[in-house]
Design brief:
Rossmann fold; 7 helices; 246 residues; Methyltransf_25; alpha/beta; N-terminal domain of TfIIb; methyltransferase; Methyltransferase domain-containing protein
Length: 246
């Protein structure tokens, strides 16, 4: 690996990686379909908007979407995309929800909730989202199921990005601390590049408790954004919490 190959979590290389590593068209379409159905009258806020993988197609459907992201590099990639310059985005910490408006839907997809580094940050995120929801508003997010992280199975996987580049992925799991670190090794034209992403994973019941602390109640839970049933064998869940009308 070259001296510049190890890219920090906030580097431009991570912005590129998120853009090419998780842009499966079928997944994007099913997620946008679900979000459009949950959006209500708007406006809608995406936490972790990144390069606009979800926000831009959702906006193209006529939904009034705003964004928050903690990375200036990812926002810069968003601005390069068609329609990205017009999307209102705030640079700031996701858990702080650093915006002024109230929303009919706030969403945090692609496992972004687990990137919040501590229990305190995750609870604060729920509380701040609730503060920015209009009456009857929803908070939708996804996450891996705890057991699927703990029994991750194959410690090393070889896959490919959406543009066909080879990618090696492995996960370190600390069960006691409820954390895992994913290491991605991407082979672009100039040589091997490593991206390291730490996560704090949350069981569904723990997420439900965070929601109750914030005054939200579980409305839906699916096994995917496409609406597959959530069962005892599901490795992933999509949960939708709602603020009461009054």
């Amino acid at each position: 690996m070259s001296e510049n190959g190890n890219v920090g979590i906030d580097g431009a290389g991570v912005a590129e990686f998120h853009d090419i590593g998780f842009r499966d068209p079928a997944h994007v379409e099913s997620t946008v379909d679900r979000l459009a159905g949950l959006a209500g009258a708007g406006p809608v806020l995406e936490l972790g908007v990144g390069a606009g993988r979800l926000a831009l197609p959702l906006r193209a459907r006529g939904v009034d979407v705003r964004g928050v992201d903690g990375s200036a590099a990812r926002i810069a990639r968003l601005r390069e995309r068609p329609g990205g310059a017009e999307l209102p985005v705030t640079l700031g910490e996701l858990a702080d929800v650093p915006v002024a408006d109230r929303f009919s839907l706030v969403y945090l997809a692609n496992g972004g909730f687990a990137e919040l580094p501590s229990l305190e940050a995750q609870v604060r995120c729920f509380e701040n989202v609730a503060h920015h929801l209009a009456p009857g508003g929803r908070f939708a997010l996804d996450a891996l199921v705890l057991d699927s992280v703990q029994i991750a199975g194959i410690p090393l996987q070889i896959t490919a990005t959406v543009d066909g580049r080879p990618m090696v992925w492995l996960r370190e799991v600390d069960r006691f601390a409820r954390r895992h670190v994913s290491h991605y090794f991407l082979a672009p034209g100039e040589g091997m590049r490593q991206v390291r992403s730490p996560f704090r994973y949350v069981a569904p019941f723990e997420m439900d408790l965070m929601a109750r602390i914030a005054g939200l109640r579980l409305e839906h839970r699916w096994g995917s954004w496409a609406g597959d049933p959530f069962t005892e064998t599901s490795a992933y869940h999509v949960s939708v919490y709602r603020l009461p009308e009054q």
